[in-house]
Design a protein that fits this description.
Length: 159
């Protein structure tokens, strides 16, 4: 379950991009986390809507608001830092530039993954690609997941 929790928490981000439609040059010197700090994203792929806010903090880069991924719909706030501490996962940010963000994560048991995120459509859409490995060190691929989320006007009621 913790793997699904973190995998779902990692739900957002993907690939590299040469998307010429994103011409917002005012943000060209900012990192991804700087550019999207405070922006809330909506994921309504599942039966319930989940929201994710980006924080400009490489140890706590997401705040989530939505169900608790146990199948019971209870809306609550969850900081990335808390989810990481609960599972004992080791996180390393590998890319944090303009429209691209990526990180890898490894659980104490040795499974883990790589998540790649790209902002598209002038920063209104985030696309993610997550490679999950049953044995991260040997890159034994288990799951590939793709997600697309959109910018939202919802304000997460979390600090």
């Amino acid at each position: 379950m913790k793997k699904l929790l973190l995998l779902s928490a990692l739900l957002i981000f993907a690939c590299s991009d040469d998307d010429s439609s994103d011409t917002n040059n005012n943000n060209s010197n900012q990192t991804f986390l700087e550019r999207f700090e405070g922006v809330v994203w909506e994921d309504n792929e599942l039966s319930e809507i989940r929201y994710t806010r980006i924080n400009n903090d490489t140890t706590n880069f997401f705040t989530r608001y939505g169900d608790n991924f146990t199948g019971v719909v209870v809306y609550e706030c969850s900081d990335w830092q808390y989810e990481v501490a609960e599972s004992g996962v080791d996180i390393t940010v590998t890319t944090n530039i303009e429209n691209n963000f990526s990180y890898n994560y490894v659980y104490p048991e040795g499974d883990g993954g790589d998540t790649f995120i790209i902002a598209r459509e002038n920063g209104n859409v985030l696309v993610s690609e997550n490679f999950y490995y049953s044995n991260y060190a040997n890159q034994e691929l288990h799951i590939i997941r793709y997600d697309t989320i959109t910018k939202s006007s919802f304000e997460i009621p979390c600090n």
